[in-house]
Design goal:
Helix content: 40-55%
Bound molecules: magnesium ion
Structural class: alpha+beta
CATH superfamily of the largest domain: Reverse transcriptase/Diguanylate cyclase domain
Distance between the termini: 50 Å
CATH class of the largest domain: Alpha Beta
Number of helices: 16
Shape: globular
Largest sheet: 5 strands, mixed
CATH architecture of the largest domain: 2-Layer Sandwich
Number of strands: 12
Strand order of the largest sheet: 5-6-1-7-8
Length: 408
DNA sequence: TCTGGGGTCCTAGGACCC
DNA sequence: TCTGGGGTCCTAGGACCC
C-alpha cells in the first residue's frame, strides 16, 4: 500500500510514439533506425505516420507523400497495414485496462485513464505511468509517452511534451505557468483556422488568451468555443474520463487516382462503399436511418447530401439506393475526386431504455415534455407529487399512465 | 506526384410543435 | 395585436482530431 497525497494528479494521457511507423519498425528489424513513412502510395496519398528519423527531414503527418519524398527521397515508404495496427491497439488497450476500468480510448493509439481509485494500491500517477509504459514496451514492442495532470486537457498537452518514450507530470500549483508559456495551437480544439483568428488579435500564447477578458474571447469565437477555450486557458476542465463511448456513425470513402465524371462508374463505387458500411452495421448489430453521400470535386470543394429514411435499415441495398438517389441530385460536371457513403447509427428503443435505466431520463426531454403539458393545460397541470393537494384541478385522472415508453 | 480515411462536435436555418 | 419563445428534427457545412 502506498500513501498518495489527495491532490496528486490522477488523469493520465497515454499516446503511442509514431504509431504506424513504429509498428512497421517492430515488424522489420532492417528498417529500425531508418526514416520510415507510412501513407497512401497511390499518387494522392498523405503521410499517416513518420518515424522520428523521418521527422528529422521535416516529414510530418498529413503532408502529401509527394512532399515527403522530396524531403527525403531515400526514406522507406510503406502502405498502411491496418490489421496490424488494430491488433497492436487492442493489446495496448487491454494492458491499460489492467490498471483501471476507467480507460477512455480516443483513437487507435491513445487513451485517457483516471487512476484516482487505483492509486491506493498501485502508487501515484507517475508510478502507474512508468509501470504501464514498461508493460506496453515489454508486451507489445512499442513505446508510449504519458502526460499526467489534474485535467484531461493538460494531461494531453503534457504527453506531447513527454515524447518520445517519456513521461511528464504537471504538478498542481504549477499548471498555469506551464500552460501560459505555450502557443494557443497547443490547446485541444484550436486548429489552423482558430489559431489564425487569434493571431489577428495578437493572441499568440495561451497566456495571451488567458489575459484577455472572457467577453472579448466570446465575441471572437462565439459563446461555446469562446467559453470553452477561455476556461482551458486557465486549466478549468472538469470533463471526466468516460469509458465505453458508443460509436455514432460509420463511413467509407475513396479518393480516386484520377477524377471521375462517369455517373455509372460512380454509382458502382457508391454500391461498393455502401456494401462495406452495411457489413459493418450488421456486424455490430446496429442499424441506420440517416445516410450521407459525400462528394469532393476536382477543385477540392466538398459537399454532403443526406437523407433520413422512414424506418431504420441495416441492408446494404437500401443504403446504396439512398446514396445513389442522392448522387442523382449532384452536378458532377468537372469531375469527382472523392466519393463517400456514411450512415448515422440509429439508437434503438432498447438502447434508449437501457440508457434511461442507467442514467435516468435526460433532463432536456423530461422538462420539455412537462413544459409542453403546462403550456397546454396551464401552470397547475403538472406539479411535484409532494406539492399536490387533493383538488379536482390537480389530482391525476384515473387511468393516467406512469410514463410513456418511446421517447422518439 | 498538392491536399487520406476514419471519426466527433458545433452552428445555423427552416419546418414543425406546443 | 407587427412579431413569443422555446424545444426537436432535419439538412448542410465546417473545424478539429488522429
Ligand atoms: Mg501517437
Ligand atoms: Mg495520438
Amino acid at each position: 500500500m502506498t500513501t498518495v497525497s489527495k491532490d496528486s494528479p490522477s488523469i493520465l494521457h497515454v499516446d503511442l510514439d509514431a504509431f504506424f511507423a513504429s509498428v512497421e519498425q517492430r515488424e522489420n528489424p532492417e528498417i529500425r533506425g531508418l526514416p520510415v513513412v507510412v501513407g497512401g502510395l497511390g499518387g494522392r496519398g498523405v503521410v499517416a505516420a513518420a518515424s522520428y528519423e523521418a521527422r528529422k527531414f521535416g516529414i510530418r503527418s498529413a503532408m502529401s507523400m509527394a512532399q515527403a519524398k522530396q524531403a527525403c527521397p531515400t526514406a522507406i515508404f510503406l502502405a498502411p497495414r491496418f490489421d496490424l495496427y488494430s491488433e497492436a491497439s487492442h493489446a495496448v488497450m487491454e494492458i491499460l485496462g489492467e490498471f483501471t476500468p476507467l480507460v477512455e480510448p480516443l483513437s487507435m493509439d491513445e487513451a485517457f485513464l483516471d487512476v484516482s481509485g487505483a492509486r491506493r494500491t498501485l502508487g501515484d500517477g507517475l508510478e502507474i505511468g512508468q509501470l504501464l509504459r514498461a508493460r506496453i514496451t515489454a508486451a507489445v514492442g512499442l513505446t508510449a509517452s504519458v502526460g499526467i495532470a489534474t485535467s484531461k486537457s493538460l494531461a494531453k498537452i503534457a504527453s506531447e511534451d513527454a515524447k518520445p518514450d517519456g513521461i511528464l507530470v504537471i504538478e498542481p500549483g504549477h499548471e498555469i505557468e506551464y500552460l501560459h508559456a505555450l502557443g494557443v495551437e497547443r490547446l485541444w480544439g484550436v486548429g489552423p483556422v482558430t489559431r489564425e483568428q487569434l493571431t489577428k488579435l495578437g493572441i499568440i500564447t495561451i497566456g495571451d488568451l488567458a489575459s484577455r477578458s472572457l467577453d472579448e474571447t466570446i465575441s471572437v469565437l462565439g459563446p461555446s468555443q469562446g467559453n470553452h477555450l477561455y476556461r482551458l486557458a486557465w486549466n478549468q476542465d472538469d470533463r471526466e474520463v468516460v469509458p465505453n463511448n458508443s460509436q455514432k456513425s460509420i463511413s467509407h470513402e475513396e479518393t480516386f487516382s484520377v477524377d471521375i465524371s462517369d455517373r455509372k462508374l460512380l454509382e458502382g463505387k457508391v454500391r461498393r462503399l455502401s456494401d462495406r458500411v452495411g457489413e459493418r452495421l450488421r456486424s455490430q448489430e446496429a442499424a441506420t436511418r440517416t445516410i450521407t453521400l459525400k462528394i469532393r470535386s476536382h477543385d477540392f470543394r466538398t459537399i454532403t447530401r443526406s437523407r433520413t429514411l422512414d424506418q431504420t435499415t441495416d441492408r446494404s441495398f437500401e443504403i446504396a439506393q439512398a446514396a445513389q438517389r442522392l448522387l442523382k441530385t449532384v452536378d458532377i460536371g468537372g469531375g469527382v475526386r472523392l466519393i463517400g457513403v456514411g450512415a448515422q447509427i440509429a439508437v434503438s428503443d432498447q438502447g434508449i431504455q437501457e440508457s434511461l435505466a442507467f442514467d435516468g431520463p435526460p433532463r432536456g426531454h423530461l422538462e420539455v415534455t412537462l413544459d409542453a403539458v403546462r403550456d397546454r393545460f396551464g401552470p397547475g397541470a403538472v406539479v411535484s407529487a409532494r406539492d399536490a393537494v387533493d383538488s379536482p384541478d390537480q389530482a391525476p385522472k384515473k387511468g393516467t399512465k406512469g410514463g410513456s415508453k418511446k421517447t422518439r
